């Protein structure tokens, strides 16, 4: 039998490397409650306990290259059962943040770049956005009890500004109508905005705090411009 | 302002009225991770009771999943999982959620989250629940509005 010390590169195991990561991973007692609670345990032969141990051992490159931190949904079930209060979802997000942006899986980073460049994940031009909003508003106005319905765009001094999830002006325009009908019934003074209306903030998923600040800052700017005091951000 | 606080405000102030008789088949409710468990951890308040109060104003016949609230099981669509392209893994992830839903006998699941809504609709066929109705909480409220 081969001894582990003969095949493991002990120089790679440096438990000080992630010491500055403030997620308490070094306090792991290896109980495995996190892995037992996690619906993604077993995918890629990985689980939260393994991830925490790898961080504690300083295996940063292996963590950053692994698929598992992107299959985890950062749901927090592991953290909720952890007896040592290790902040595992935030650890996962930190691992994600260290991935080369071009290697972020799927459309996550591409959508975020589109949002930063154009104000929304779809690169939807302002005219097209306004056409969709007005078109769907006309459909609502054709329904009984909604005669005269309009969707206010860029209304100064409105009581509520609401963001829009990009799928609602893409493949799911019917789902714009629910909130609009509630606003109408409640007699709410509300508005949507013609630019930077994007409700999703994919920097949350990719571990990009700077991008999140930009997305949030833009919404705050619009609220200040239109003097709207209340934000409804249903995403 | 959260979707829950606004809906509760409208209902309590009498600005909207709801007809509780329109949905009679059994429904259930899914706690999104970020409104519940993660909000509890980050902000000291998880939105657990608010959506249930709203449900009580809309329907009689609904039942909680088990486990729920802080111990809820994620649908598998969070954290950007709908957009990573790891679709087989996302379907596998959802198996526990669908075991929970089946155990309630519900034919409709109400969610207040775009990611959960997308995921549940997207994978329900893979888990033999093609007929499950996935409904936004605010869609349920809109469907129950008394307009005249």
Provide the fold topology.
The complex is a heterodimer of chains A (235) and B (148).
Chain A: H1 4-7, H2 33-37, H3 48-56, H4 60-65, H5 68-71, H6 77-81, H7 88-97, H8 108-118, H9 126-141, E1 160-162, H10 177-186, E2 190-191, H11 203-206, H12 209-226, E3 230-232
Parallel strand pairs in A: 1-2, 1-3
Chain B: H1 3-12, E1 27-29, H2 37-43, H3 49-58, E2 62-64, H4 87-93, H5 95-104, E3 108-111, H6 114-123, E4 133-136, H7 137-144
Parallel strand pairs in B: 1-2, 1-3, 3-4
Share of β-strand residues of chain B: 5-15%
Q: Looking at the structure, what is the overall shape of chain B?
A: globular
User: SSE order of chain B, as H and E?
Assistant: HEHHEHHEHEH
> How many whole angstroms does the radius of gyration of chain A measure?
23 Å
Q: Biggest interface: chains and residue counts? A: A-B, 46 and 45 residues
Total of domains of chain B: 1
Mean pLDDT rating of chain B = 97
Topology pattern of chain A, helix = H, strand = E: HHHHHHHHHEHEHHE
In terms of per-residue confidence, which ranges of chain B show pLDDT below 50 for 5 or more consecutive residues?
A: none
From the N-terminal CA to the C-terminal CA of chain A, the straight-line distance is 55 Å
The number of E-state strands of chain B comes to: 4
Helix content of chain B: 40-55%
The largest β sheet of chain A comes out as: 3 strands, parallel
Strand order of the largest sheet of chain A: 2-1-3
Number of domains of chain A: 2
